[in-house]
Specification:
Layout lengths: L5 H11 L17 H16 L3 E4 L5 E4 L11 E7 L12 H17 L7 E6 L10 H6 L19 H7 L17 E9 L4 H5 L3 E7 L1 E10 L3 E2 L11 H19 L5 E10 L5 E2 L2 E10 L2 H22 L2 E10 L2 E2 L2 H14 L3 E6 L5 H4 L4 E7 L15 H19 L1
Parallel strand pairs: 3-4, 3-5, 5-15, 6-14
Antiparallel strand pairs: 1-2, 2-4, 6-13, 6-15, 7-11, 7-12, 8-10, 9-11
Helix pairs in contact: 1-3, 3-11, 7-8, 9-11
Amino acid sequence: MIAVSLERLRARLEALAGFGGLPGGGVTRPCWSPRHEEARGWLLGELRAAGLEAWVDPAGNVFGATGVGALAADRPVVLTGSHIDTVPEGGILDGALGVVAGLECLETVRQAGAAHRLPLAVAAWSDEEGRYGSLFGSRAFTGRLDVERIPEMAAADGERLVDAMARAGFDARRAPEARAPAGAVAAYVELHIEQGPRLEEAGLPIGVVDSIVGVRRTRVVFTGQADHAGTTPMDRRRDGFLAAAEYALRARDLVVRRGGGRSVTNVGVVSVHPGVSNIVPARGELVHEMRSPDADVLAGLARECEALARRTARRRRVAVEVRPLSATAPALCAERVQRAVEAACVTVGLASTRLYSAAGHDAQNLAAIADAGMIFIPSKGGRSHRVDEMSDWEAIERGANVLLHTLLALAA
């Protein structure tokens, strides 16, 4: 039975972690940044050194493949992959594991001469983390990109996507050209850390993902009136920040109460204007995120939160603007892929369980054009999106071997 090389896999993961690596551990490598572009160049070199055909599409997605130099409907591929961009002060495995393990699987197959009827390919998708637009690269690849929004897509700090891509040598207006030909992908499977505690707490080595949550992000801006913080009576203030703070607390309670037990919410970006201690804030602005594996529940929560924002604004005597930033729909994983993962677990002698993904992933876009699924391995302490994110190297090896045999089964 063929198996991956943990030594080679670990060396590549540690090398990739050096691009944007932080002194105390972890990585900051946002898409299109200089560190990301250095990592892209490194990845292309590794793909070619492994004997694979490698290329980059107009959306910045990187590919490596056995036996093909482009994707076409007349020779569909079995595709794996993930992303190499990170959140600020993120870990070394989120996204990187799926890309580097996919590369390792393809190199192992090639060196062993393992039979596979369909070509195999690995992808590194652009801006999965959503600095400019959630799951940007896989949206472009699957034809789900909102072309009209490209000129206005921007990071929370105001940097525009078109400028970031231009700096990296790409034309954002050409990103829709990355759309894959219909039928070019026979199946897609993505290896990832769970990013939560369920597998570790259950003592199980492999999670077979049956569905992926949808994610909605909305910018909510409350605009009141700037006033002197000392001389303006409390009952006459129209404080934009207090309205935003009240909304954040009430929205959390609403999602907990009405989210069906599997919905979560977060406010991770807050800004106050003019932002000095002796002026009543004229404006309070936040980015509100919600996630749920149920599309109807997610849509209902979005409607209720918008109504909540408007009620809060009336009560606080301020204006409010509710501006949707991005929305991904929940996705079901293909039963065929789930069975292939479970069969691979039997082949390598590992127990598994089915579970939903509480994080969004590129696989949910791929599910719109092909049979798609995911493989989870345990995260230490359930930690992710932080510098101490990690899995045991033995767990990483197990997950990569399950991916290897899943790819071979789907390509047989």
